[in-house]
Amino acid sequence: MLKAISFHRNGGKSLSQNIPFKQRKELEDKMAEVFKEDIEMLSTELQEILLDDLVTAFQNRINVLIRAQAKGSY
Questions:
Q1: Has this prediction a pTM greater than 0.85?
Q2: Other CB atoms closer than 10 Å to residue 23's CB: what's the count?
Q3: What is the mean pLDDT of each run of 10 residues along the chain (74 residues)?
Q4: Any idea what DSSP says for residue 14?
Q5: Phi first, then psi: what are they for 10, rounded to 5°?
Q6: What is the Cα–Cα distance from 1 to 5, expressed in whole angstroms?
């Protein structure tokens, strides 16, 4: 799913990952399906906000783990 990962080196220390828009949308759609029953009581707008937040949190967690691994912490 995260095939198109781009890494940027800044002084050899910093790595970042960007999920392309299409893959981000696919991930949001999959999360919407997984959490369908849990979020159905929310308005459509709040569902969209929550799903966007979940994908952002997932992306941020991946970035943290990539940096930790690059530093040899894991």
A1: no
A2: 16
A3: 40 56 95 97 98 95 93 81
A4: B
A5: -125, 100
A6: 10
Q: Give yes or no for a contact between 19 and 2, defined as CB atoms under 8 angstroms apart.
A: yes
Domain segments of the chain as ranges: 21-70
Q: Give me the pLDDT at residue 1, please.
A: 39
Rounded distance, CA 11 to CA 31, Å? 35
- Distances, alpha carbon 13 to alpha carbons 34, 49, 58, in Å: 36, 32, 21
Cβ neighbours of 65 (radius 10 Å): 13
Task: Tell me which amino acid residue 64 is.
Answer: V
Helix (H, G, I), strand (E, B) or coil at 10: strand
Closest CA to 17 of 52, 53, 68: 68
